[in-house]
Amino acid sequence: MTDRLSRRTTLKAGVAVAAAGLVPAPLRAATTPKIKLRILETTDLHVAVFPYDYYRDKGDDTMGLARTAAVLAAARAEATNALLFDNGDVIQGNPMGDYMAYQRGLDGGAVHPIVKAMNLLSYDCGTMGNHEFNYGLDYLGKAMMQGANFPLVCANLLKPDGSTYLPPYKVLERTLRDEAGGPQPVRIGVIGFVPPQIMQWDQGHLAGHVTTTDIVDAARKFVPQLRKEGAEIVVALCHSGIAGGTRAGGEENAALFLAEVPGIDVILTGHQHLVFPGPDFAGIDGVDAERGTLHGIPAVMAGFWGSHLGVIDLDLEHDGTAWKVAGFKSEARPIYDRKDRKVTPRVDSRPDILAAAQPEHDATLAYVRQPVGEITAPITSFFSLVADDPSVQIVSRAQLWYIGPLLAGTAAAGLPLLSAAAPFKAGGRGGPDYYTSVPAGPIAIKNVADLYLYPNTVRAVRISGAIVREWLERSAGIFNRIDPAKTEEQPLIDTSFPSYNFDVIDGVTYRIDLSQASRYDGDGKLVAPDAHRITDLQFQGKPIDEKQEFVVATNNYRAGGGGSFPGLDGKNIVITAPDTNRDVLVRYIHEQGRINPTADGNWSFAPLPKTVVVTFPSAPAAAQAVPAGLTIEPAGDAGDGFAKYRLVFGG
C-alpha cells in the first residue's frame, strides 16, 4: 500500500503515539481500529450488457457488463468491505439503446434492460454521463430512475430555479468490518458531476429546462456541506476525464482540477474511454499514471463498454474523530487480454446478467437486421483518416438531401449548401476491429448505425467562407506535423485527436499541407496563427470568397460548439431539424433504393517528397480494401492488433 498522509494527519498520529504509552495495550488496540475498504467502479457502459457488437452482428469479447460482473464478483470475494459505483453514460451508445428509446419505449413502468442488469449487481450509487441526455429529459427520467434500486447524484446540473436536478450528494451509512472483525459504522459521502458541455451538445433537449455549472465550482460549494453532514470519506463520481494545463473554468475534462478541492478522498473518472492508471495519461503535471493519483488523490478510470472494473483499495484509520485515508492502491482490471492481435476473454459472462436483458437483446437483433436498401460496392472506413472516403461521403450526401428542401422559404434560401461529416469508427481506442465494413448488397439498419454511431440530430449553420476555412483547419489538427526533409518514419495521426472531430466538408475542394503546424491545439485554441494547412480551398472551381456566406449541414453536437470549432457556438444555427442524422441516412438510402457508394475526392494531401516515410495504423484487413487512387505499402505491426501502413506520396 502507498501511504498518503497529510501533515495534519501525521501530527495527529504523532500525538496518538505519544499518548499510547499512557494506556494499556488492549485499550490502545480498541481505540485505533483499521479498515480495508474496496471502492469499485464501472463507467461508460453505453448499454453494453452483452459481449456483442450489434454493428457487426457478432460477439465481441472486449465488452459487456455480463463479463464485468464476473470480474466484479471476484473482486468482491477478495475484500471484506466493498462499495460499487457507476460513473455514467449508461443508456445510450449502441443499437439496443436506440431500440429502447425509439421503438420499444419505457411506458407503463418498464425498466431499461441495462438498469435491470445493474440492479442485480447491488450498486451503492451512480451519477449521470453526458449521453444520458441524448434522448431528452423525459426519457432520461424513465430510463435512469424508473425501477433502479440505487440512487443517483449530480451536483452541477440545475433546474431553472437554481436547485439541483438530482440530489447533489448522498451520505451512505455503512457498517464495515475492521481488521479484527469488529463492526465499525462509517459514513461515506458520494458526490457526482457531469460535463457542463451538455448544454451545447444537447441544447435542443435541455435549453430552458436545466443549466450546468462548472465542476470545480460545484465541488467547492457542496463538498463542505457533505462534510458538515458527517461524511468521513468522500468519493467523487466524476463523469469527466483527465487533462492538464491551467484551469480556466468550464472544462469538459476536469478531474485533475477537481482533485485540488479540499475534502475529496477518491475520484472515479470516465468520459474519455481510456484506462487509468495507465500510460494514456503519462507526462501530465499533477498526474501519477503508475500509482493512479491526481494531485495525490487516488483515482481510477475503467475504460468503456464494460472493458474494465475500476478498483481502489483504501486503508482507513480512525484519528479519534473520524475515519481517514491512510493508504491506497488503484488499478483497472480488464475483462480480456489482447496478444498478437488476438483477444482472449479472462472471464465468462454471468448468466443472470444476460438473462436480465435477453428479451431486449433478441428484439434489438431483429431490429438491426431489417434491410433498408442496397449498395453496389463495399463501404469501409479503413482509410477514412487518410483519404476521402465513401463511409463519410454517404452521410454528407444524406444531409444535403435532407437539408436542401428545409431551406426553402427561409432567410438562408439560395445560399450555397455544404455538408460536414466525420468518420466515427476509425480504430483508435476502439481497437483494430473498430471500423465500418459493410459488404456490397442489402444494407440493414445495423449497417446504417455502423456508419453513424450517435443519435445526433440534424442542424444547419450559416457561416462565411473564412469560417469554412477555419473549420477545416481545426479538423486538420488530427495530423501530426511532417518534416519533408526527414527520411526516418513519421507517424501521421495524432492519436489524442478524436476521429469524430475530423470533419470533411463536401461542396468545396481543398488540400492539406502536412508540413505546416496545426493552427489549433487539442482544445481548439489558436496556437499557430501563421500556419495554414488548408490550401487550394475552392468552391465551384474558384478560390473561395471568404466573405461569401454558406449554409453547412451538420449535427447538433458540432453546431452547438462540440469540439471547440471556430465560429461554431450555437448562435448561427439556421435549421434545427427534429430528425436524427442516422434516421435521415436510413430514409435517404431507402428512398434511393440502390446506391453506388463512392467518394468524389474533394480533399487530398499536398504533395511531399517520395523519400518521406509517413505511417498510420489501420486494421490488418485494410490491406485487401485499398481504394483506387490511394497508394500505400505495408509497414509492419503497429501494436495492439493494428497493422501499420505507409502512405506513399507522388511529390
Automatic annotation (TrEMBL):
<protein>
    <submittedName>
        <fullName>2',3'-cyclic-nucleotide 2'-phosphodiesterase/3'-nucleotidase</fullName>
        <ecNumber>3.1.3.6</ecNumber>
        <ecNumber>3.1.4.16</ecNumber>
    </submittedName>
</protein>
<comment type="similarity">
    <text>Belongs to the 5'-nucleotidase family.</text>
</comment>
<dbReference type="InterPro" id="IPR006311">
    <property type="entry name" value="TAT_signal"/>
</dbReference>
<dbReference type="GO" id="GO:0008663">
    <property type="term" value="F:2',3'-cyclic-nucleotide 2'-phosphodiesterase activity"/>
</dbReference>
<keyword id="KW-0732">Signal</keyword>
<dbReference type="Pfam" id="PF00149">
    <property type="entry name" value="Metallophos"/>
</dbReference>
<dbReference type="InterPro" id="IPR036907">
    <property type="entry name" value="5'-Nucleotdase_C_sf"/>
</dbReference>
<feature type="domain" description="5'-Nucleotidase C-terminal">
    <location>
        <begin position="372"/>
        <end position="568"/>
    </location>
</feature>
<dbReference type="GO" id="GO:0008254">
    <property type="term" value="F:3'-nucleotidase activity"/>
</dbReference>
<dbReference type="InterPro" id="IPR041827">
    <property type="entry name" value="CpdB_N"/>
</dbReference>
<dbReference type="Pfam" id="PF02872">
    <property type="entry name" value="5_nucleotid_C"/>
</dbReference>
<feature type="signal peptide">
    <location>
        <begin position="1"/>
        <end position="29"/>
    </location>
</feature>
<keyword id="KW-0378">Hydrolase</keyword>
<dbReference type="InterPro" id="IPR006179">
    <property type="entry name" value="5_nucleotidase/apyrase"/>
</dbReference>
<dbReference type="InterPro" id="IPR004843">
    <property type="entry name" value="Calcineurin-like_PHP"/>
</dbReference>
<dbReference type="InterPro" id="IPR006146">
    <property type="entry name" value="5'-Nucleotdase_CS"/>
</dbReference>
<feature type="domain" description="Calcineurin-like phosphoesterase">
    <location>
        <begin position="37"/>
        <end position="273"/>
    </location>
</feature>
<dbReference type="InterPro" id="IPR008334">
    <property type="entry name" value="5'-Nucleotdase_C"/>
</dbReference>
<keyword id="KW-0479">Metal-binding</keyword>
<keyword id="KW-0511">Multifunctional enzyme</keyword>
<dbReference type="InterPro" id="IPR029052">
    <property type="entry name" value="Metallo-depent_PP-like"/>
</dbReference>
<keyword id="KW-0547">Nucleotide-binding</keyword>
